[in-house]
Structure formats: C-alpha cells, structure tokens
Amino acid sequence: MPANSFNGETDYGIGIGLRVPHYQHILAQKPTVDWFEIISENFMVDGGRPLEILDQILEQYRVVQHGVAMYFGSADKLDREHLRRIKRLVKRTKTPWLSDHLCWGSVDGRYTHDLLPMPYTFASAKHTAEKIRAARDILEVPICVENVSSYAEYHVSEMTEWEFLTEVVELADCGILLDVNNIYVSSQNHHFDPIEYIDNVPHHRVGQIHIAGHSKFEKYILDTHDHPVLDPVWKLYERAVRQVGRTATLLEWDDSIPSFDEVHEEALKANKFLHRLEAQPA
Amino acid sequence: MKLNQPKAGSLTELKELQRLMAATLFRPLNSDWGMQRKWTNGASMSEVAASFIKPNDRLTSFERLEIYNRQYWYRVIDCLYDDYPGLRAVLGEHRFLKLCRAYLERHPSQSYTLRNLGSRLEDFLRKEPAWSIPRQAEALDMARFEWAQIVAFDGPSRPPVTVDDLLDESPATLRLGIQPYITLLSVDYAVDRYLIAVRKREGNVLRGEASNAMEQVPRALKTRSRLRPPRPERVFLAIHRFDNQLYYKRLEPTAYRLLSGVQNGLTLEDACQTALGLDSTNTSAAQIQTWFRDWAELGWFCRPSTKIKS
Hints:
heterodimer; A: alpha/beta; TIM Barrel; 8-stranded parallel β-barrel; two-stranded antiparallel sheet; 10 helices; 12 strands; B: mainly alpha; Outer Surface Protein A, domain 3; 3-stranded antiparallel sheet; 11 helices
C-alpha cells in the first residue's frame, strides 16, 4: 500500500530531514533525493533566510511538513494562531500530508518544548482525536500522527501504547507516522515487545515511517537522533514494511550531523529491505 | 504525606495531570543538575513522582520524571546559550546560567517556537538587576542588541520603497515606514565590536533543530576564559538584513535621529528638522541625500503600516 489517503495518495520513496548544515551542499550540488522533510515550526516565520532557503528547495524537491508543536494531546484547545501559520506554510510547500506527534507539550499556554507521553486513557484518546479532526478541517490536508519515544508511564493508563495509538487514529480517522526507532526506544524503556506493537497497529493507516539512531545509557535509552540506525531498529523496519508495504520512509538525524552524503547513504540502506519486499511473491 | 493519585478520565482530570507534570518540569534543577528532592509544599518529590509516574525495575518514578525535568532545562538553557553569546560573555558562564534559570522560572516559554524564548529578557534584566549587577547596563545593551538580531534574521518585511518611488513626493507631507525587521538601537557600550570578538572566539553556533533529547550536560556548563567587558562608547546601530544576511551598521548620531523620526511617523521634513536641530556636526544636505539613497538601496524604507493624518 504505497499510496493511501493518509499520505495524499503519493508514492514517495526515501527522504531525509532538511537540516541547516546541509543547506549549502544541497543548493550547490543539487543531489538526487526523493524528498525532504522539514520541521514546520522552523519555517513558520515572517521572512528572511529560512523562507528564502525553503523556496529554493521547493524549486527542486518535494517537501513534507513535520511539526513538533501542535500538541494534539494537550488539554488546552488548539492554538489558532499556530494553525494559521501552519496553513500558510502548507500553501507554500504544497505538502501532500503533514505529520505531528501523538503527545502533549503545553498547558495553560506555557510550553515545555518537549514531546511528552500521553496517559493512555479513553478520555484522553477521545480528546486527542477531536483535536486532530479539528486541525485537519482547518488545514485541509491529511494528517499522520507519530508515536513518540518515552521514558515514563502513568499509573492512570488504561491500555497499551499501541492500543492508544489505534484508538486515537480510528476515532480521528487519520494516518500514522510509524517511528520504528521510537517503538524500539520505548519498548526497551517500558519492557514491551516491539513486534507486538508493530503487528497490532492498523497497517492500512500508516502513511509514513521514521527511522533514526538512539543512545543507550545504563538504565534507559534516549531518542537522540545523533547516530546511524542500529540493527534492532532496522529489524523492526523490515517487520513494519512487510506488514505495511512500501511506504515513504524518512531518516531523522538532528544532532552531531555528519555530511549530507553520509546521512543520505544511511537513509538509502532502507532500500535493501524495500527491495527484499519487492522480490517476495505476492 | 498521603498524595492523591491524579487521574485522566476526563478532560478536566487530563488537564490537572498535565499541570502537575508541567509544574515538575518547569521547576529548576538543583545544584547537581538533578531534580529537586522536595516539592513546593515541602512534600517528598519521590512521593509526588510516585503518585502519577510508574516505576520500573531499573528506575524509580522520581528518576523517570527527572529525565524530563533535565531535558526541559537543558533544552531551554541551550537555546538561550546559542541566542545570547554576547550576554553570556558579558556576565560569564556561571552568572549567565543563574540568570537563565531565574528568567525561565519567572517567564516559561509562551510560544510554540524557541525562537521567542528571549523576548522578555530585556524587561527581566531591567526589573531584576540582581542577576546582572555590576554589569547591568552592559547586559541590557547586549540583550537588546542580540534580540534585535533574532528579529532581523526572520522578522517580517514589507515591499520596499525605492528612490524612484519618492521622486514626486513632497518631504513636507511624505511619511515612510522602516522595515519591521530593522531595529534602531542607541547603546552606551560598543556591543557590536564586542560581539564580533566573542564570535571570533567561539565560532558561529547553530541551534539543534528537532531532536527529542538533549545532550547530557548543557553546553553552558563548559567553562572558558572571559573577554574583557565591552568598552563604554555611545553607539548608534541599525540591525538589519540584506539579501537575507544579517548585518549591524553603525550610524552617525544625526542619521540615527533621522531614521528614528521616520520610524516614529514624522514627515520626512520634520524628521530632518528634528535630527538636524540636535546636530552639532553641520551635516550637509548632500550627506543626507547620500544617506537616504544608501538606505533606500538597502531596502530599509517601506510605506507606513497605518496611515497617519497630517
């Protein structure tokens, strides 16, 4: 299922995150890249260099917006000014779908700038789904929500994380940005089986997949996006694409960023799994 | 102390749970960069954490919550660290950290973007001099200067007015606007030259973009030798951008007053008269013409945002 209504019926291949240290290389060398993912909030500005760069990128490449601050799970109402700015950017990028996280991060108008885990309750699933629906109605573009990595769980949770994700996306009738690195990180931090997670989400709703690196500490794993993708995450990726099918895949590398070529090469390793998939009989 | 276990069975309960968690994250770290051991009411923080966060076989509820508490502070301090290298150099790393902590405790972010994190720093430095004395004046000038650069980097612009657009206009009635991304500053210290020295020492630093996690230690903890404080000198500056590159340009006092008059809505004629009335250097008409031509070429002028009646 390469194209579905949750990714705007597109068939994007393997992309990488557009990051400042690579701007010069991309604009000068014009490397072949299937698509770039941008952090929406970095370009929701009124003018200046960020928009100039974005416009130059848009002349050459396909761009998909990925947000970090819509906070669908926050009990606060949607921030109308934030949505207005996202919509302005949507018109500029013509993103076929956009994504943000299944998390919360602000309360009473004060922002943590973090992707905080949700309490997995039916009430919070309902509230979150209503906000996703409302955002989609305003933005008029398909939305995929991304599972986050987490380091804490709440006593009040009534279901597993994948059950909560399923509940939210079914109620909101939206897509999933399946981050297999986040699944791995959380599975290690919370002792669950990542394969059970991947096997039990609604596969037909997956519009995009994220892969990334992480850092292992003595007692927990942090989602640092500063390493190549590790083997256990590739294994989960293989499992995911077997279930979901060939899906737009993006490598996130946000800290200690190496050269453009190194990042792109790492992302293209995903092809190995996609080709294996294509070689299999239907 | 027996604590009630927060619930999330309704929107109201979800909000209460999120308020509690956010309050724990916004609470400053202790001197060892760990979560404080006592809650605001004197209760054990371990008990507060255990009331809503599950432990696992490796981490207590306290330790799990502490990961988020640390990440919050590392993230926001790193942001100010990147955005205010000059202020950091003026105060020194240690005092800068103390200032960040006090400022962010008083003014947690109210914007979806970290770009606006320092928007109330100037006001805070004015109202709470304890965090910057004996260098309050230098710190204030530097904070204003560095915030102006953030505005110039990605602030809004309006269609520029060119010299040709002005040919048929009478200076007696013509009012212009200054591009909203431009800040005109009058400072008492040579903060521009000081910042150049700071940047030369440090190299330009780019803010991390989208990682969910931060380094294990904020960069502000890494100490380095201090520069001498900025030199006292009355300086007039225009912080602007050209071809989307950031610049700060020193202005003659008369030029600064003239531009300020234009920015404040005076007619061109009144702005010139006001500026020249205070001019002790006998600025010539030719000089003013040259200034205007240069400024127009830099795209500094636009139409005023609201029509002002003469």
